[in-house]
Write a structure and sequence with these properties.
heterodimer, A: 378 residues, Immunoglobulin-like, 2 domains, six-stranded antiparallel beta sheet, 28% helix, B: 308 residues, alpha/beta, ten-stranded mixed beta sheet, 11 helices
C-alpha cells in the first residue's frame, strides 16, 4: 500500500493541497508489509538514504516526484527488521547528513542519533521502559586503584532489594556507561529483576579510555578485570565468588575483550555474553580487510579457532543479520560449542548498534542467569 | 488425614479469608508465609483480610536463627541444597534431550499406529526421568536426616516445641504461596506437617503445591526458549493423586493441546488441575471431594469449572 500511496500522490494533481493532504496524519516511513517507503519533503538537489545494512548499497537515492518537493524510496525489508538510517540532503553541491525529520523514532549512540525504521512485526520490547511497579536499583560511582591501569572509574549497580546478608552474582560489563545510556541497561535490569526473570545481581560497569587497544586481546586488560576489578569488588560487596556466578559481557570490541579475557583466565568467568563481537579472522594468512586495529584481534581469533578450549561454561552470543560481522559470529558459535560449553547463538534482523544489543539483553541475561520466576507462585 | 482446602493465587486480592469463613473457621489460625522469604513478616494486609486472630509461625525467620545458631548443621544443609541444585541441573539437561528426542520422533512420516506407540514410549521415558529425579532428591534428603537427625538438634527441637504449642491453640493452618522451594524447605526443616494434629489446612498457590505428592514447576512463556515442566521434589502428600498448577492463565499456553496432553499423560494417573484466582479444591482424607477449578485432560483440552 505504501508504494501505492506514493504512486497515487505521483499520479494525482500534484498541487500543494494534495501534497499537504498526503502528509497529514501519516506516519513515516510508511510501512506496508515488507515494503518500507522513506519520504522527504523539501527543496534539494538530491536526497540519499544512508544506512548500515550489510548486503544493501549503503547509499541509495530517493526519487523526486516531478513538480513537487516530495522525495521517496521504497525498500523491501523482511519482517521484524529494525534499521537505523540518516538522510543525506544535497544542497549547493554539499551533502548534509540528518535525521529523518518526518520520523519520530530515534536511536542514540556515542556519535549522536539515527532515525529508526521499524519493519512489520518489530515491536519495541516493553521491558526497556521504566515500569512504575519495578523498584529501581542504585548506581554508584566507584574509583579503584588498580595495579594494571592505575586509578580507574567504575559504576556499580546494586539491585533495589540489596542486602548485605545475601550473596549476589556479579556481571561485569565492558563499555558499561554506554550500555546505561544507549541500551537502557539500568531499566532493563530493574525490570527483569522485578519480573523474576533474572536474579538480583551486582553489576560492574567498566569503561576504557583506549578501548580499541585495551580490548583487542591485551593481557593488561585481562589482568585489570580478573586481578584488579573482580577481587576488589568481591572484598567490598557481598558477591558469590563462584565462576558460575560471574559473567563478563560486552559488545563489538567489548565482546572481543570479554572472550579474550576468558581465554586468558580459563574457568574464571562461568558466563559470557557476547554481542556483535568483532571476531575477525582469516582462514589463511594473517591479512584482514578491516585495517590494522584488527590485527591483534585476527591473531587472537585465529589462535582460538586453531585450538579452542572450554574457557567458560555458558556463552550467549548475539549478532545482527545486517552487520558485516554476521559471518564471523556465525562461524565462532560452532567452534565454541564443539568444546562442550553450553552455547546459545541468536540472530536478529538488526545492525551493529546499541538498540540491537538492548533488545537481546532479556534473552541473554535470563538464559545465563535464570531468575526465580519458575519457582514463585503467589 | 486432614481436611485441606487448596486455593489459587492470592494476587492481587486474597480470598483465603472467604474460604475460611465458608468453612466456618472462627480462628485463631496459624500462618505460614515462609514463601515470601525476607518479606515473611509483611503480613498485616493478609491478617486484616482474614478477619480473625492469626499467628505467623515465622518459619523463615526461625530457619535463619537455626542456621545462625547451629553452624555445622547449617553447612550440611547448605551443602545438601547445593547438591540438589546440581542434581536438578542434570535432570533438566536430560529432560531437554528427552523432549528433543520426542519431538524428532513425532515429526517422522511413518505409520500413524507406530508413531502413536512411539509417543507413548516418549511419555514413558519422561515419567521415568521424573521418577528417578524424585528418588535422587529423596536420597539426598534422607542422607542429611540420617546423619544429622535434625529434629534432635537443640536449635530445631526448641523451635519445634514452640511451634507445637502455637499449633495446639489454632483451628487451622494457612499456607500462603511465594517461593516454592523456600516454603517447602522451611516447612520440612521443622517437620511442620507432623506437628499438626486435627487442624484444617488452607493452602494457596505455592502453598497448595507443597501439600500435594509431587511439585511440578511450569511456565510456557519463559524469557527464552520453550518452557518444559519439571518435577521439583516430593511434597507433603496431604493431597493425593493431584498435581496443582497455580496461576495457569499467565503460565500455560492453553492453545498448545499437544503440550497439555503430553503433560497430563506424563503425570497420570494423577489428575492435573489449573488453579486461577478464586479456584478451590476441597480435600478429605487425601482425596478430592469437590472442586471449582480447571482440569487439564489427556486430549489437551482444559475443562473449565471442573467440580471434582
Amino acid at each position: 500500500m505504501s508504494a501505492r500511496a506514493i504512486d497515487e500522490l505521483a499520479a494525482g494533481p500534484r498541487t500543494k493541497a494534495a501534497v499537504d493532504a498526503f502528509f497529514a496524519g501519516r506516519a513515516f516511513p510508511i510501512v506496508d508489509g515488507p515494503a518500507i517507503t522513506f519520504v522527504f519533503r523539501g527543496e534539494a538537489e538530491a536526497i540519499h538514504l544512508k544506512h548500515w545494512v550489510f548486503g544493501l548499497p549503503s547509499s541509495q537515492q530517493l526519487a523526486r516526484i516531478e513538480g513537487t518537493d516530495v522525495w521517496h524510496l521504497t525498500l523491501e525489508l523482511p519482517p521484524r527488521s529494525r534499521v537505523e538510517y540518516k538522510l543525506e540532503v544535497v544542497r549547493g553541491g554539499h551533502g548534509e547528513w540528518m535525521q529523518d525529520p518526518l520520523n519520530p523514532h530515534k536511536a542514540r549512540d556515542p556519535f549522536g542519533a539515527n532515525s529508526v525504521a521499524h519493519g512489520e512485526g518489530y515491536e519495541v520490547p516493553s521491558w526497556i521502559h521504566p515500569d512504575p511497579e519495578s523498584r529501581p536499583g542504585k548506581i554508584d560511582e566507584l574509583w579503584l586503584d588498580t595495579k594494571t591501569f592505575g586509578r580507574r572509574r567504575l559504576e556499580i549497580y546494586l539491585p533495589a532489594r540489596f542486602r548485605r546478608t545475601r550473596r549476589y552474582p556479579l556481571l561485569v560489563v565492558h563499555d558499561g556507561h554506554d550500555y546505561l545510556r544507549y541500551a537502557a541497561l539500568g531499566t532493563v535490569l530493574d525490570n527483569l529483576m522485578h519480573r523474576l526473570e533474572i536474579p538480583d545481581m551486582i553489576v560492574a560497569l567498566t569503561s576504557s579510555p583506549d578501548r580499541l587497544v585495551e580490548y583487542a586481546n591485551d593481557e593488561r586488560h585481562a589482568a585489570f578485570i580478573v586481578d584488579d576489578v573482580v577481587p576488589q569488588l568481591e572484598r567490598a560487596l557481598p558477591i558469590d565468588g563462584r565462576p558460575q556466578s560471574r559473567c563478563l559481557m560486552g559488545a563489538s570490541f567489548g565482546a572481543v575483550a570479554s572472550l579474550s579475557t576468558a581465554l586468558r583466565r580459563p574457568g574464571f568467568f562461568g558466563r559470557l555474553l557476547l554481542q556483535s563481537g568483532s571476531f575477525a579472522f582469516t582462514d589463511i594468512g594473517d591479512r584482514n580487510h578491516r585495517g590494522p586495529l584488527f590485527d591483534p584481534v585476527v591473531a587472537f581469533v585465529n589462535q582460538l579457532r586453531a585450538r579452542p578450549i572450554a574457557m567458560s561454561e555458558r556463552i550467549f552470543i548475539s549478532c545482527g543479520m545486517y552487520e558485516s560481522l554476521i559471518y564471523e559470529n556465525r562461524s565462532l558459535a560452532p567452534v565454541l560449542e564443539a568444546t562442550g560449553m553450553d552455547v546459545r547463538y541468536v540472530e536478529a534482523r538488526d545492525g551493529h548498534n546499541w538498540e540491537n544489543w538492548r533488545d537481546r539483553l532479556r534473552e541473554g541475561l535470563s538464559w545465563l542467569f535464570p531468575g526465580p520466576f519458575l519457582f514463585v507462585y503467589e | 488425614m486432614s481436611t485441606v482446602v487448596l486455593l489459587g493465587p492470592q494476587q492481587p486480592t486474597p480470598d483465603v479469608g472467604a474460604a475460611l469463613a465458608l468453612a466456618h473457621v472462627k480462628g485463631p489460625v496459624a500462618l505460614v508465609t515462609a514463601g515470601w522469604q525476607e518479606r515473611e513478616s509483611d503480613d498485616q494486609a493478609l491478617v486484616e483480610s482474614l478477619g480473625m486472630k492469626a499467628v505467623n509461625l515465622t518459619l523463615h525467620a526461625r530457619s535463619e536463627q537455626v542456621f545462625a545458631e547451629d553452624k555445622p548443621f547449617a553447612a550440611a544443609h547448605k551443602a545438601k541444597q547445593g547438591r540438589l541444585r546440581l542434581v536438578n541441573d542434570f535432570y533438566r539437561i536430560r529432560l531437554d534431550h528427552e523432549f528433543e528426542a520426542a519431538r524428532s520422533i513425532s515429526v517422522r512420516h511413518v505409520d500413524p499406529e507406530l508413531l502413536a506407540e512411539e509417543q507413548i514410549e516418549s511419555v514413558e521415558a519422561l515419567k521415568q526421568l521424573d521418577r528417578d529425579h524424585l528418588e535422587r532428591c529423596q536420597i539426598k534428603h534422607d542422607e542429611l536426616a540420617d546423619r544429622w537427625r535434625p529434629f534432635e538438634r537443640p536449635a530445631i527441637a526448641r523451635h519445634r516445641k514452640e511451634l507445637a504449642a502455637i499449633l495446639d491453640d489454632v483451628e487451622a493452618v494457612v499456607v500462603m504461596g511465594g517461593h516454592v522451594v523456600s516454603l517447602l524447605n522451611r516447612m520440612k526443616l521443622f517437620g511442620l506437617v507432623g506437628l499438626c494434629k486435627n487442624q484444617r489446612w488452607f493452602a494457596a498457590a505455592a502453598g497448595a503445591m507443597v501439600l500435594t505428592e509431587r511439585i511440578f514447576l511450569f511456565h510456557d512463556f519463559p524469557p527464552h526458549g520453550t518452557g518444559i515442566a519439571e518435577v521439583l521434589d516430593r511434597g507433603f502428600g496431604l493431597v493425593r493423586d493431584l498435581v496443582v498448577l497455580p496461576d495457569f492463565r499467565h503460565r500455560i499456553d492453553s492453545g498448545d493441546r499437544a503440550g497439555i496432553s503430553r503433560f497430563v499423560q506424563r503425570i497420570a494417573p494423577a489428575t492435573c488441575v489449573a488453579m486461577d484466582v478464586g479456584a478451590r479444591v476441597h480435600v478429605e482424607g487425601g482425596q478430592v471431594r469437590h472442586a471449582l477449578c480447571h482440569r487439564l485432560d489427556a486430549d489437551g483440552f482444559i475443562e473449565e469449572r471442573w467440580t471434582g
